[in-house]
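REQUEST ID: PR-0412
SUBMITTED BY: lab tech R.K.
PRIORITY: routine
TASK: structure prediction, single protein chain
INPUT:
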Amino acid sequence: MTPPRCALAMLVLAPLMAVLACRGEGGDGTRYHSRGVLRNIAHPNGQRVLLIHHEPIPDFVSRDGRKKGMASMAMPFGVAPEVSLDGLEIDDKIEFTFAVDWERYPTSFVTDVKELPPDTPLQAWPP
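STATUS: complete
OUTPUT:
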């Protein structure tokens, strides 16, 4: 490939690679489903971050690869670029999917989210 073509290819491929890298695939492809209450929506440094108090996640695997589970707690989750937050408000009960990538911060990031009916009972609630 000649230098101008190589530069053009990099201009086209770099944004595509960035989008694919941020699509929500965990470092090992690990995804979890949970429910909880949306406590905050923030935009530090232009990145969307949700503070979610989630239900226990019994099948959660730690950084060292061991299944340890995770207690119910409030924690920050990044948000994948393709995820819409339209209509979500603080204190909404939500169902969400998140991926884990131990090389990112936050290490967990939402790849799908939807609002639940307000009367939905949650495990280990109230927090």
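NOTES: The first helix runs from residue 3 to 21.
REVIEWED BY: pending
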